[in-house]
Amino acid sequence: MASSTVNRWLRPEVYPLFGAVGVAVGICGFQLVRNICINPEVRVTKENRGAGVLENFSEGEKYAEHALRKFVRNRPYYPCLRPCSPSSQSQNLDHNRPFFSDSLSDTNVNIIDIPFPQNIEGIPPGDESTDRLPSMSLFVPFAKATKLMKPDFELTLESLSPVTFMITDSFLPWTLDSANKFGISRFAYYGLTTFSLSLMSSSGDLLRTELSDDEMFTLPNFPWIKLTRNDFDPPFKEREPKGPLFDFAMEETTATSKSYDLIVSSFYELESVYVDYLIANVVLEHGALDPFVQRLSHHKNHYRKG
Where is the chain membrane-spanning (predicted)? Predict the structure, then answer.
């Protein structure tokens, strides 16, 4: 009986199955051991499970940015294995166009390509959108690198028919300078909802107080919402925020305040409480939102239409 079973499975045609299953089991076992031993979010002992929210950002970054990932990211990049022209190399690095061209295929919208800067320190070649970044710690260098597109962007504006307005992402604050240069109204677009914008504004003063990291507080304008300092990411949760990310956020906010108007991803019927708050009450520490609060109020009927 045992001999027949062994003979049934120990056959050359079954060896690939053994190999595939063995590799799968090995990967699963490796990940289980790795997560139990070094993942900062996995807590095995009762003492660790009862510790609440941990300040383990550095441990998490070390876990995510392991040696293999760094080796793969920093290896030499060869976009073509054979001699290729600059145009074909550009096509290999073109990752954003298909997304827009496919979604607009049934419209008369024309898409103009503007080359993304290359050889940016820390940014892997070919990564032309934030969702492709290996780590969000590279967001600020990536955002600042987009400013190198400004000359090509302005040349493109000059080549078009008279442009009456532009809509650019809020994390492209430099486009305001281009808009002012050509006398074009700039609309700043935020992927954030008015809920997120309202929470950040309403909690700003409280985060500058002596509240502890785990101490619960109620938002003054939204008493049904309770948060702690640890619900916010650094540097915004700090009592005195500073650093490249905070500086960039201030640059972004200032550019938005000087833009013609603001566009957000929402509908008034969904977030009427937060829209009304932004219209009536938003005053940031530097008064950055004041200029478009009144304008948002004037366009409220348009906002209601989504």
Answer: 14-33
Position 262: which residue type? L
The DSSP element (H or E) to which 154 belongs, if any, is helix 150-159
**Is 164 in contact with 137 (CB distance < 8 Å)?**
no
- Is there a contact between 229 and 215 (Cβ–Cβ < 8 Å)? yes
Is the pTM here over 0.90, yes or no?
A: no
Give yes or no for a contact between 252 and 173, defined as CB atoms under 8 angstroms apart: yes
What DSSP element (H or E) covers 189?
Answer: strand 185-190
Pairing of strands 222-227, 185-190: unpaired
Q: How many residues does the chain have?
A: 306
- The tens digit of pLDDT for each residue in 81-120 reads 333 334 434 444 456 778 778 888 888 888 888 888 888 8
215: helix, coil or strand? Answer: coil
The single residue listed with the structure tokens 């650019």 is 168
Tokens of 114: 């503007």
Q: Would you call 303 exposed, middle or buried from its count of C-beta atoms within 10 A (0-12, 13-18, 19+)? A: buried
Nearest CA to 95 out of 74, 116, 70 is that of 116
